[in-house]
Every structure is written in C-alpha cells, then in structure tokens.
Amino acid sequence: MRALSIEPCSLPPACEALRTEVRAFLAEAMAAVPPERRNRNWSGADADFSRRLGERGWIGMTWPRRYGGHERSALERYVVLEELLAAGAPVGAHWVADRQSGPLLMRFAPETLAPRIVPRIARGEVFFCIGMSEPDAGSDLASIRTRAEKKGDGWVINGRKVWTSGAHRAHYMIALVRTGTDRAADRHQGLSQFLVDMRTPGLTVRPILNQLGDHDFNEVTFDEVWLPDECLIGAEGSGWQQVGAELAFERSGPERYLSCTQLLLEMLDQADAADPRQAEALGRVVAQYGTLRQMSLGVAGMLARGDNPALPAALVKDQGALVEQAMPDLAHALFGDHVPPGSTLDKAMRYATLSVPSFSLRGGTREILRGIIAKGLELR
Questions:
Q1: CATH number among 3.40.50.1460, 1.10.287.110, 1.10.1040.10, 1.10.540.10, domain 13-126
Q2: Which of 57, 101, 288, 365 could form a disulfide with 70 if both were Cys (CB 3.0 to 4.6 A apart)?
Q3: Model pLDDT, residue 185
Q4: Hey, where are the domains in the chain?
Q5: How large is the average pLDDT for residues 331-344?
C-alpha cells in the first residue's frame, strides 16, 4: 500500500492583501444579488460579471503574459476563487475556460490555437464547455463512440455528447472523440481532442432541464461537422493522456466543497447558540470544511510547485461531495420543523436538496474517483 501525503500550505501576506481587495469588489458588485441567486454558486452565469473579473486580472491569473495572463501564483488564484465561491458570485460563464480549457490549449496547442483564443478567455470574453460524456458511456470515457474521420485537410465528426454544462452559452467546446479503432484492447489509444466552434454547421445544442427546472445541461449532436486540421489539439491518439491532465484541474479546486456555502451560512445565521445539538452538528460541518480547505489548499500548493495533483485532487473531490451531499439532510434535521416558508433558509434548503445529487457525478462519478484513488494507493 502506498501512503498519500498532502503537504500543508500556508498563504503568504500578499494573498491576504488580495483577499481584502476581492472582498471589497464583491461587496459592491454583489450588493443587489439576493441570497436565492447566490445559492447557484459557480453554476450561475453572468457574462458581464465575467468581463468585469477579466478587467481586474482575475481570470487567467497564473497564465503567461504572452497569452493574456498575469503570471500570478496558484495560491493567489486560489484566494480569488475562494472568495468568489463563498460569495455565491455568478462565475459559471467563464469557469470551465479559466479552470481547464485555457491551460489545456496552452500546453497542447501553444503555437496554434492558444495565441488566438486564450487571451480572449483571460479578458472574460470567451466561454467553453466540455464534450466528454456520452449516452451509454457515463463516466467511462474510454467507451465513447463519437468519431472523427480524416477527410482531406480536416476531420468530419459524427456522434452525440450529453450533460454538457453551459453548451448553450459557450463559444467553444473541447471534445473528446474517437479517431482510432474502437476495439476493447485499444479503447484508450484511439482518442483525440478537438477544438469545436459552437457555430459550426451540423452542430445542434438541445437543452436538458435538471430537477430544479434550470437549463444548465445540454445534449450536443454532431452531424457531419467538419473541422480543419488546426482544430486537433495535441497529437492524434493522445486524447486519453490529455484528458487525465485536464481532469486534475477540474477536481482539485475549492468549488468541490464550497457549492453549498450559502446553505451553511443560512444555517449559521438561524442557529440557536444555546442549543447543544445545533452547536455540535454545525461545529462538525465547519470542522469538515476546515479539513477540506487544508486539503484543497495543499493541492494548490502542489500546482504552484509544478507537482502532479491527480491523486489528491480525486480525494478532495470525493470527500467534498460527501460533505456537501449531507448538508440538506442536516438542515432538515436541525431546522426542518420550524423554517418559515419562503425564508432565505427555506429557499437554500430547497435548492440544495434538488441540486446535490449531481455533486457525485460531475467531474467523475464516486465509483470512478474511488477507483482512481485505490489504484493510486496501490490497493488494487
């Protein structure tokens, strides 16, 4: 069995000074945003808000200046994300592009696609979606069937993607498709990634409404979608390795335990300090938040040092989902019989109850993550 160690990470004074700056901005920018909208956390989207963050240099913070970035530290970026999430800011429009699409393009298309597109991401002008999941494939990405075939100086893609968050507002998708054989022995070898302009003919986006009736997810159909050679990201057949690097960014951030922050804040506001049951239960949750924060911050420290955070990131994501998915049940147990209908606590409880089932799906199902963890710890 292999041991897993996440080295503690402390924030330098510059990070705390930045935190003060971000809080001042949010106090002004979020003043008129009601608590029920803050419940959406990082799934809420506002293109104008994203552009305002871009103007302040809070998108693409760690990226090289040649790509429109600001060459700040991973820890400074962590502080900005932490404050945005805690405030329930509507960051969903640019979230995917800032978290993983921009870094992916800079790493695997540094001289072709990145110079043209990444600076626009940093300005908060361009939004991305992720084309991974498919019908009958779920989190088993090696089972995808959407296929790209070489035709002259380009590629023709046919297939379908589902649960594609934000596809209806995205300018681009990074799609994982099959370019090689689909024989079982070669499932991981024949995958490639493509940059897809969402305005491309043959591409159809259909809404999938979630339990809340919100339109976050989509089905995206490729019907003879032609892309030029320059849209191939990295080398043909390297998609599996590239996706592994991309998912490390997706699983490690504070969004993996701060999605229910508004509900926790509402519970703390309503709690009776003289009630030992509430004090113990909420104190336990706050302690769990503190532990997850230290783990997540440790992953940020790994990123700052250039280490590979894939294994601890999977652990943070798995444990964060457990804490957050238990939050609505805790709220109902502590306050359910005396919550005024229509109150901010009531709205937060209702929203969380309907939204938390997805937390163990996004970024990889619990079963997939635990398989990664078990393999990384040499338990199987």
A1: 1.10.540.10
A2: 57
A3: 58
A4: 13-126, 130-238, 252-376
A5: 91
Q: What is the pLDDT of residues 274-293, one digit of tens each?
A: 999 999 999 999 999 999 99
HEC per residue, the chain: CCCCCCCCCCCCHHHHHHHHHHHHHHHHHCCCCCHHHHCCHHHCECHHHHHHHHHCCCCCCCCCHHHCCCCCCHHHHHHHHHHHHHHCCCEHHHHHHHHHHHHHHHHHCCCCCHHHHHHHHHCCCCCEEEECCCCCCCCCHHHCCCEEEEECCEEEEEEEECCCCCCCCCCEEEEEEECCCCCHHHCCCCEEEEEEECCCCCEEEEEEECCCCCEEEEEEEEEEEEEEHHHEECCCCCHHHHHHHHHHHHHCCHHHCCCCHHHHHHHHHHCCCCCHHHHHHHHHHHHHHHHHHHHHHHHHHHHHHCCCCHHHHHHHHHHHHHHHHCHHHHHHHHHHHHCCCCCHHHHHHHHHHHHHHHHHCCCCCHHHHHHHHHHHCCCC
Mean pLDDT of 129-139: 84
Q: What does the pLDDT read at residue 248?
A: 66
Question: Which range among 60-69, 130-139, 245-254 shows the weakest confidence by mean pLDDT?
Answer: 245-254
Question: Which class in CATH covers the domain with range 252-376?
Answer: mainly alpha
Q: Which CATH number fits domain 130-238: 3.40.30.10, 3.30.70.1350, 3.50.50.60, 2.40.110.10?
A: 2.40.110.10
